[in-house]
Design goal:
Oligomer: single chain
Strand content: 5-15%
Strand order of the largest sheet: 1-3-2
Radius of gyration: 18 Å
Shape: globular
Number of helices: 6
Distance between the termini: 15 Å
Length: about 150
């Protein structure tokens, strides 16, 4: 790949990352959810709407420590977005679920992501979507590996 194309690709990725973060903040932190942050929304997303999740699983999904997560959970609980409950079998384990307000925030955040994906793939055929998917998988693998010298 030509050097100019690599430079342009880098600039595009940096700009996209910044735009996604800015737009997501503007789209999901509305009047209804003004008492939480974009980071809080990602925690709500990690908790999900299925069965209760324990703190370790949520922390792992977010790539943070349980102690860091606990600080955020305190705020979300005070604001009425989550409910925490100790396991009856093992008192060290804490399970987290979303309250009704937390589920509303979850769906609100999910809707933003659905709109974003729809905009990304709207003009792509199946082959182009497969190529895009493989590119994003490669990018994800790069971030997950932590190796900056690839």
């Amino acid at each position: 790949m030509a050097q100019n194309r690599k430079r342009s690709l880098n600039e595009l990725l940096v700009n996209l990352f910044n735009h996604v973060m800015d737009m997501e903040g503007e789209a999901v932190i509305t009047e209804e959810f003004k008492d939480i942050t974009n980071n809080d929304m990602h925690i709500i997303e990690a908790i999900g709407i299925e069965a209760p999740r324990n703190m370790s699983v949520i922390a792992q999904k977010l790539h943070v420590t349980v102690s860091t997560l606990t600080i955020n959970m305190n705020g979300l609980e005070k604001k009425g977005y989550i409910c925490r409950e100790r396991s009856q079998k093992d008192k060290r384990v804490v399970y987290v679920t979303l309250t009704d307000n937390g589920r509303k925030a979850f769906y609100h955040h999910r809707d933003f992501h659905k709109k974003m994906i729809k905009a990304i793939v709207k003009d792509l055929n199946e082959q182009e979507m497969e190529i895009l998917y493989r590119c994003l998988e490669n990018l994800s693998s790069f971030f997950e590996s932590g190796k900056q010298d690839q």
